[in-house]
Amino acid sequence: MALRRRLLLASLIAGGLSPVRAETRRFRIALASLDETPGATLEGLGFTDADLRRSFELAARTLPVDMLYFDNAGNPDRAIANADAAIAAHVDLLIEYNGDAEANATIAHRLSAAGIPALALIDPLPGAPLYGPDNRAAGRMAGSALADFAHETWPGEQVQGVLIGDLADPGAAVTERVQGITEGIRQSLSTLQFTTLDTGGQSVRADALLTKLLLTQRGQRLLIATLDDLAAVYARNAIEMQRRQSDCIIVSQGCDRSIHGGASEKKELDPSNRGSVVLGSVAYYMDRYGYDVLPLALRLLAGETLPPRTVTKHVLVTAANIFREYPPFDMN
Amino acid sequence: MGETIVKTIGFATVMGLSLLSLLGLSTPAAAQADCKSVVAASPFGPDDQTGATNRVTPQVTKAAAAEIQTGVITPMAYNLVDGVPLFGTRFTKTILTAVSTMPGAEYGKNKLSYMEDTYLSQSHVGTHIDGMGHIGIQDCYYNQTPMGKYVTQNYLKRLGLENVKSFATRGVIIDVVKVFQAAGKLKPNAACKNPCLDGGTVITEADLQAGLKMYNVTLREADAVFINTGWGDLFLQYPAQNATYNGAEPGISKSAAAWLASQKVIVVGSDNWAVEVIPGEDTTEAFPVHKTLLTDNGIHIIENVRTDLIAAKAARDNRATFFLSLTVPKAVGATGTFVSLEAIQ
After folding, report:
1. For the segment B28-76, what is each residue's pLDDT rounded down to a tens digit?
2. Helix-strand-coil percent breakdown of chain B, rounded to 5?
3. Which residues of chain A are within 8 Å of residue B287 when distances are taken between CB atoms?
4. Which uninterrupted H or E stretch holds A71?
5. Taking CB atoms and an 8 Å cutoff, what residues of chain A touch B283?
6. Considering CB atoms only, which of B22, B201, B280 is closest to A331?
7. Which helix H or strand E contains A132, and what residues bound it?
8. How far is CA B254 from CA B42, B139, B220, B258, B277, in A?
9. Which of A62, A264, A291 sits opposite B87 (nearest CB)?
């Protein structure tokens, strides 16, 4: 890479990636996303590939980047074909989001042969820096919040833990989140017992499953951790229908649009809904990945060595900070 | 919450202080900050509540009057009617009172009848102007005003529209659609029937400068700047495209706003609902252009301006400047109001 290009990029990065100047070289960066099939969600959360792609489109507006988009469609062969297409298109860098390790090994090999650097999203690509969530830390954040709530609201009382979500999901992400939640709660409630309610991937089932539990656990204080926001919304329905708001609290994972909205799109996490049994949701910001990943890509293109893994910032988003984390723009 | 001002100016107008309503604040702001470290001081002195219209001097108005050469007037406001794009908590509802037109209800032997309107609406609807009391950072508003001290149940005790001075100045239309077409970078929205920039398109100061250069215009102090993005095409299709219109918009960047402020303009208006690009350049930041223009520089924002007609006329006549015809009601303590404006050439 020419020294001049490196210097230009270095100055751009040092300047906080400010709007593009005419003399700045533009880069062709491809994003091969996991699965753009309508309705397909990512990582057991409520985000979709459309959210992810949009974040790259928005982030690219003020960067010296021209984006190419590929849909891996959840298919390893398609992912390899997309990588070949990106190579044929002479991209400067490929951002790969593909869950199949074998295909990723092939893609890494072909990219290396073509001299094209890569960044991996969530699932590792051999030799490429990885960007993704810290599922365990996010889980711990939720667990700690639940335990803190119990100490503040029900001091000295007996409480029970409930885990709701797609618990049979074989992916590492769910396992890590559950581990984190358990650790977070047990930091201060070391003997807490958990009941698990497996939605089997259908968040709507959280309603019926929790209703059944509530009917058998009358008067019991429940600390409820849901693994996705839609499950939290359905769990809230069950609690409200059983009039158990005074002894249940929910913390979720994701903070996607199913649980928060804008100023005029009132949803569960809202400044005017601070009494909700949904205390909050740990944000994964998959709808903002582009803003984090494209600057990393430019640093890589500038010749910088990136750490092997960069993790998403996670924040517990509640009614008290939702508008700071997701400023609504439906007002003027 | 739901603070309202009731005005009777021939008809009853109920205007909600919409921002406060949206935020659900019924009492002075809880989070008080040191406003001297948050907001810039006004160049017009510590007591200034007027903002940039202080720049409209007799000399400015006299120079602007030279823009009137043919007397041709081009409207720059949309019709104010129920059904135009609004946001969830906002509404307009017109009610016609026509009792005296009923047989036997006329007045006097000459059978005089009359009709009046009741207009129920927030103030920030349709073509409307944002005043100095509209936008702040925490409770810090224009000229380092700690607004928490001045918010009452019904209106503001400082920075209300009654402080605004004249808009009798030169207007300038910047046709960014033409700029993007000329640069070969126009990516229109499919819902637009005429060329438009797509939602989320960032308009930079370089784009604005290119638009000025097209008509050989140099901005001067106290100008009112209007930006044609084409997005207003969706407004004109109400209600069919309301959701698309409200969902995003092309608009100016933070740095473009700072550049306009450096030119000492008094108004920035556009054919969109927030003037600035939505989604913003940094999605974690709320309405930064509003803060730059209104809060830091006292520059009024006019939203939902009908710019297509004057942009088309500029293209026909190769002339992008005009005398701005705009007056604002002396609505005491109001944060904004719907307005009508015209370009006179």
Report:
1. 444 567 999 999 999 999 999 999 999 999 999 999 999 999 999 999 9
2. 25, 25, 50
3. 327, 329, 332
4. strand A65-71
5. 58, 288, 291, 326-327
6. B22
7. strand A130-132
8. 20, 21, 20, 6, 9
9. A264
CA distance A61 to chain B (A): 7
Q: How far off is chain A from B255, nearest CA to CA, in Å?
A: 9
CA B164 → CA A214, B156, B230, distances in Å? 60, 14, 29
Contacts of A288 in chain B (CB under 8 A): 283-284
Contact between B172 and B208 under an 8 Å Cβ cutoff? The reply is no
pLDDT band at residue B85 under the 50/70/90 scheme: confident
Q: Cβ atoms within 10 A of the Cβ of B291, count?
A: 20
Cα–Cα distance, B147 to A159 (Å, whole number): 45
Q: What are phi and psi of B69, to 5 degrees?
A: -115, -40
Residue A84: count other Cβ atoms within 10 Å of its Cβ: 15
From residue B214, how far is each of B72, B208, B328 by CA, in Å? 22, 10, 31
Nearest to B89 among A58, A264, A327 (CB): A264
Chain B residues with CB inside 8 Å of A332's CB? 87, 124, 273-274, 287, 303
> Which residues from B are below 8 Å from A330, CB to CB?
87-88, 246
Other CB atoms closer than 10 Å to residue B283's CB: what's the count?
19
Chain B, 197-216: which have a CB under 8 Å from a chain A CB? Answer: 200-202, 204
| B92-97 vs B116-121, strand pairing mode | antiparallel
Quote the tokens at residue B325.
């015809």
Set of chain B residues whose Cβ sits within 8 Å of the Cβ of A273: none
**Hey, which residues 252-281 in chain B have their CB within 8 Å of chain A?**
253, 255, 273-274, 278-281
Summarize pLDDT for A21-59 with one digit per residue, the tens: 445 789 999 999 999 999 899 999 999 999 999 999 999
| Residues of chain A predicted below pLDDT 50 | 1-5, 7-8, 12-22, 332
Is ipTM > 0.90 here? no
The DSSP symbol for B296 reads I
Query: A263–B278: do the CB atoms touch at under 8 Å?
Result: no
Biggest alpha carbon–alpha carbon distance for chain B: 69
Q: What is the DSSP letter of A41?
A: B
Give the position of tokens 């001299």: A115
Q: Token pair of B114, please? A: 């009359």
Least confident span in B118-122, B200-204, B266-270: B118-122
Look at B3 and A117; give whichever has higher pLDDT: A117
Nearest CA-CA distance, residue A10 and chain B, Å: 21
3-state secondary structure B46-113: CCCCCCHHHHCCHHHHHHHHCCCCCCCEEECECCCCCCCCCCCCCCEEEEEECHHHCCCCCECCCCEC
